[in-house]
Each structure stands twice: as C-alpha cells, then as structure tokens.
Amino acid sequence: MLEETSLAYQPHRIDIMADESHDPGLLALNPNSKIPAIYDPNGPSGTPLTLFESGAILLYLSGKTGQFISADPIHPLRNDPVGDVAPILLRYKAA
Ligand SMILES: N[C@@H](CCC(=O)N[C@@H](CS)C(=O)NCC(=O)O)C(=O)O
Predict the structure, then answer these.
(1) With CB atoms counted within 10 Å of each terminal CB, which end of the chain scores lower, N or C?
(2) Cα–Cα dist 34/77, whole Å
C-alpha cells in the first residue's frame, strides 16, 4: 500500500520468530505487540500519528492520499478489508 500510494516510508524488520514483536519500539506503536504498525510524523493537521491493525492502516492511508477509496461514504464499508462492518451493511439498502 505504501508503495502503491508513493508515500515515503522507512520499513523496520521485526522477526517474530526471534520474539522481536515484544521490542519496546514496536510496543510504543502497538500495545498488542503485533505487526503491522505505522508511525506517521505528518498525521492529521500535521500531528504525528501511530496506528496499528491492518484494516485501520489501509483505510488511513487511503484517506490520507485519496487513493483506493471512493467519495461514496458507503463504498469503503462495502469493501471493508477486515470484514468488521459487514453485519452493519446488512441493514443498509441502496435507494
Ligand atoms: N488483526 C491484526 C493481526 C496482526 C497480527 O496477528 N500480526 C502477527 C504477524 S501476521 C504478529 O505480529 N504476531 C506476533 C506476535 O503475536 O507476537 C492486524 O490485522 O493487523
């Protein structure tokens, strides 16, 4: 996603087989000790942002760049990357 959006980024390797998921640097980004997690020094209104959970990261990067997301407010819900909102959509009927 970072490649596709052409955002500058610096990857950090975490070897979970070597128990590096409990590294203090990762814990500072994600208290659940899981990858992926991101730190954006230029978050909303220029405020630094940390974010974890794949789906949240994908939606954030889409919103930040205006790519891979529709202006239709229902569209991102229909294409929910982790499926968390599917039950909610069952109550939505297009006009
Ligand atoms: N729901 C999370 C799952 C993240 C996850 O399970 N990450 C695994 C690697 S795929 C991990 O960091 N495991 C390390 C550990 O549990 O110690 C997401 O979508 O980001």
Answers:
(1) C
(2) 24
